[in-house]
């Protein structure tokens, strides 16, 4: 249970496939991955740079 699992359920219902963050806690990462949502940690760059990297890796 917990808030992390509720958030993961909501994001899954919205068909979210990936979450990008500077850092994930273990509980939320487990909750998201249990719903098939990929967790991508990217720190030290802007959101625009992160999006560009993701787009290059997933054409």
Automatic annotation (TrEMBL):
Organism encoding this protein: marine sediment metagenome
Dinitrogenase iron-molybdenum cofactor biosynthesis domain mapped to chain residues: 2-55
Gene3D superfamilies linked to this entry: Dinitrogenase iron-molybdenum cofactor biosynthesis domain
Protein name: Dinitrogenase iron-molybdenum cofactor biosynthesis domain-containing protein
InterPro entries in alphabetical order: Di-Nase_FeMo-co_biosynth (IPR003731), DiNase_FeMo-co_biosyn_sf (IPR036105)
Family matches, as Pfam families: Nitro_FeMo-Co (PF02579)
């Amino acid at each position: 249970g917990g808030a992390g699992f509720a958030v993961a359920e909501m994001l899954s219902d919205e068909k979210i496939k990936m979450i990008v963050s500077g850092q994930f806690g273990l509980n939320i990462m487990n909750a998201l991955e249990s719903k098939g949502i990929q967790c991508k940690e990217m720190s030290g760059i802007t959101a625009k740079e992160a999006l560009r990297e993701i787009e290059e890796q997933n054409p």
